[in-house]
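Incident log, support desk, overnight shift.

02:14 A customer reports that sequence design results differ from what the structure should imply. Their input is reproduced verbatim below. On-call engineer (initials T.W.) acknowledged and began investigating.
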């Protein structure tokens, strides 16, 4: 009987909360315990680099009545190990037994080597991080941002909006160098200049001192604060020795129903990777939408295993991500690495444009800047894998959905 089963969820972010809610939505009546390392009520992360950072919102707690749903919370408690053979988690307060375990510990931002203990150096991942950075913006400090990726661009946008002097240091030759090809990322460099942000590309940090960032070419940058945005890694170090399989990137290698290599253990959200039949490779997706969708599959797999119901469909969504930066709304769907054709829709010098990636004539990914309709229609086209006429795709004056071949 599922009423006698206990599901323990390690992690109280979006993926953990949505897993707990989905279990109740799908009829699970047993015990649900969610353990979170932070002392705060579970909260949503996207506002951290926007409203909370700017002081226009005090928090972003999920509007979930955990007590009414019979979901127990243990907050401010880190999990330190798991022993699958004993069906137990280890914590500072002692072992926690489980019948089913869900790993939802998310990802941790990468620190700048050698700068971890330097005063004035910040990461932006948690509510406490945002609280520490808010006075920096209020006082309009000189800020150096290390990394011109998604989080670097969003923080630079907020800091410029608050009146700070902002310099962004990027090791690659363009923003988002690890995300998009040069012809796509290069036009984005102009966004920094338009906002009054100084972007230094092909630049590396040699060392950081209080009040100063030294680059490896000898340049010295004044810095009342340094914000590091150089990527993140799955928060899975605590799984060492557990026998749960991890990939080279540190992710828990879940299967297409998000089950791990250990019995009765699932993984979801930023800490997990999964095999995508759509793209023919294993994907690790560190985005909000993945943490929203994956829990439904996990809950269905857990309840199905208890009731003998049919397994849920394989987890293989079209990845989706969005970002607000320098006055632009940027959205991305899919995975473009396997594409054989890239098609521009519009001029990147204009406020709104898109880039479509095709494989064998079918849409596999789309980047939309200020073109939400392209994004909405593109998602359906990626899901359908319908062949498109590349010449019609390139005609930005017509709806993307009218580019069907034949």
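02:41 Re-run completed on a clean worker. Output:
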């Amino acid at each position: 009987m599922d009423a006698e089963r206990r599901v323990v969820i390690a992690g109280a972010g979006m993926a953990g909360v949505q897993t707990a809610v989905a279990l109740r939505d799908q009829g699970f009546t047993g015990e649900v315990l969610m353990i979170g390392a932070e002392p705060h009520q579970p909260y949503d992360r996207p506002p951290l680099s926007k409203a909370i950072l700017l002081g226009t919102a005090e928090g972003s707690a999920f509007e979930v009545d955990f007590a009414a749903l019979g979901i127990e919370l243990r907050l401010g408690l880190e999990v330190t190990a798991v022993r699958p053979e004993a069906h137990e988690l280890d914590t500072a307060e002692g072992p926690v037994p489980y019948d089913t375990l869900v790993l939802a510990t998310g990802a941790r931002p990468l620190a700048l080597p050698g700068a971890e203990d330097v005063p004035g150096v910040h990461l932006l991942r948690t509510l406490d991080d945002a609280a520490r950075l808010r006075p920096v913006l209020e006082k309009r400090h000189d800020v150096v941002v290390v990394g011109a990726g998604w989080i670097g661009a969003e923080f630079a946008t907020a800091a410029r909006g608050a009146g700070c002097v902002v310099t962004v240091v990027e090791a690659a030759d363009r923003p988002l160098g690890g995300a998009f090809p040069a012809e796509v990322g290069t036009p984005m460099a102009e966004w920094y200049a338009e906002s009054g942000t100084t972007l230094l590309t092909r630049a590396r940090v040699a060392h950081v001192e209080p009040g100063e960032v030294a680059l490896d070419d000898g340049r010295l940058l004044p810095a009342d604060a340094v914000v590091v945005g150089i990527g993140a890694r799955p928060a899975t170090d605590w799984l060492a020795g557990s026998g749960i399989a991890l990939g080279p990137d540190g992710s828990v290698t879940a299967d297409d129903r998000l089950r791990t290599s250990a019995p009765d253990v699932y993984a979801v959200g930023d800490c997990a990777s999964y095999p995508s039949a759509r793209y023919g490779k294993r994907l690790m997706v560190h985005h909000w939408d993945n943490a929203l969708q994956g829990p439904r599959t996990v809950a269905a797999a857990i309840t199905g295993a208890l009731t003998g119901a049919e397994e849920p469909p394989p987890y293989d969504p079209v990845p989706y991500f969005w970002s607000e930066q320098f006055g632009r709304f940027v959205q991305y769907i899919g995975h473009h690495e396997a594409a054989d054709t890239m098609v521009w829709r519009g001029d990147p010098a204009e406020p709104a444009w898109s880039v479509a990636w095709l494989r064998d004539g079918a849409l596999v990914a789309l980047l939309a800047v200020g073109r939400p309709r392209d994004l909405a229609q593109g998602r359906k086209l990626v899901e359908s894998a319908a062949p498109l006429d590349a010449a019609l795709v390139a005609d930005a004056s017509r709806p993307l959905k009218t580019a069907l071949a034949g």
